Amino acid sequence: MNAVLAIIRRDLLLAMRRKSEVLTALFFFIIVASLFPLGIGPESALLRTIAPGVIWVSALLATMLGLARLFAPDHADGTLEQMVLSPTPLGLLVTGKIAAHWITTGLPLVLLAPVLGIQFDLDVGALGVLVVALLLGTPLLSLIGAIGAALTLGVRGGGVLVSLLVLPLYVPALIFGAGAVESHISGLGAGGHLSLLAALLALAVFFAPWATTAALRISLE
Amino acid sequence: MSNRLISWFKYASPQSFYPLAGRMIPWFWALTAVFGVIGLWVSFFVAPTDFQQGEGYRIIFIHVPAAWMSMFLYVVMATWAGLGLALNTRLSGMMAQAIAPTGALMAFLSLWTGALWGKPMWGAWWVWDARLTSALILFFLYIGFIALQAAIDDARRADKAGAILALVGVVNVPIIYFSVKWWNTLHQGSTINLAKAPSMATTMLWGMLLMALAFWMYSIAVALTRVRAIILEREAHTEWVKDLNEVKA
Predict the structure, then answer these.
(1) In whole angstroms, how far apart are CA B100 and each of A16, B47, B159?
(2) What is the rounded CA–CA span in Å between residue B211 and residue A83?
(3) Do A165 and B164 touch (CB under 8 A)?
(4) Which residues of A touch B157 (CB under 8 A)?
(5) How is chain A split into domains, by residue range?
(6) What is the pLDDT of residues A105-125, one digit of tens each?
């Protein structure tokens, strides 16, 4: 457990020392979400309808943008090999890295989402559901994304490739995440969607670090 | 092991599988032709005209087998990939790599023929329905698998990385299917249901099953042909490949 906390602390510290990388993904999220009204038009009824989808797709893309940072720097300077050699199971260390990745990319998205939601004229209840859905969904995105990041480690054109591998796997998160907000707006209640999202998260917490570890070992062979 | 009738592990080596595949390919092509000709004959001349959909429905004789194969081949590919990871056999990875393009082709065919069928029946080339959308995502998964394998130069590493992706994909396919299904459903209910009598004429069912068999045999024949090419490519440095007649010539 100490090792996991140490990894999280180290990755957060590294992120703090290079703030621009974290902020880039965050501003990317804001800019992408802000482009949609410019392309579609300012009618608030239309914006309210597309808001959950637009914010979720932007979150998907922003998370994906941060995936390159997950393992590549550690791979480049040899830290990753030391982690594989360390007595602590690699799966735990990977879980720590994914947690740190979520804190630096996922959590800021969750905190910023209400601001974007206001831009899209969502009411307070819908904003609350949006935050809860993102709180459950963004760790899921980090967990699934980590598999893709590990598979494309040190591969030619890895940055573009990771999007091809990961985005189809993000579909359930997108559907249930955006669906939660939509069904709240239409008065059906968001409980079902949020439960499914939480179930997916539980599944991913169990399996994703394991698959990521296997992929990392293959990359480092 | 040696007292078994057939030693399966003997054929896990590319060297002994290469000639075996070569001997099997003509048979599967022949079966493809037989099932294909009978299947097409049944589906064009024997099967009655549908009273609602007219003659246009006949595209399902291509569409449904292609859709079946696209899903089935993904599972087969993932099985080979999993075997390759578990037993560390080289041939399994080659099989997975050989199946992927055929699977992608089937997924594409099912989307394409689906669009051709959808235009006269629904009045739209494409609708965002559960099965269409999950078929599209299945196609993306195939493309991702092929792209990942193509991007890694070391063949063994490509096999293993692809295997993990295929296994992650196979866990995800049902999740994606149900998530998309609950998201939106407009597609007509499944025409063939094992629990109840099929809601179509028996000859239509026969035509579809024959075409499915033809597609199946075609997929095996093509995958075996492709795996032979992959074996030659990867084992080009070995003595037995250099001794092959087709390589010498």
Answers:
(1) 43, 33, 12
(2) 53
(3) no
(4) 218-219, 221
(5) 2-219
(6) 899 999 999 988 888 888 888
A-to-B residue pairs, Cβ atoms closer than 8 angstroms: 72
Task: Indicate yes or no: CB of A172 within 8 angstroms of CB of B165.
Answer: no
Task: Name beta bridge partners: B54.
Answer: B50
- Coil, helix or strand for B205? helix
Give A19 to chain B, closest Cα distance, Å. Answer: 31
Give the C-alpha separation, B168 to B146, whole Å. Answer: 15
| Least CB–CB distance from B151: residue in A155, A175, A219 | A155
pLDDT, tens digit (0-9, with 9 covering 90-100), for B67-126: 889 989 999 999 999 998 888 888 888 999 999 999 999 999 999 988 888 887 777 788
Closest-CA residue to B167 (of B245, B67, B92, B91): B92
Per-residue burial over A189-200, b = 16 or more CB atoms within 10 Å of its CB, e = otherwise: ebeebbebbbeb
Cβ–Cβ < 8 Å for A62, A25: yes
B197 touches chain A (CB under 8 A): no
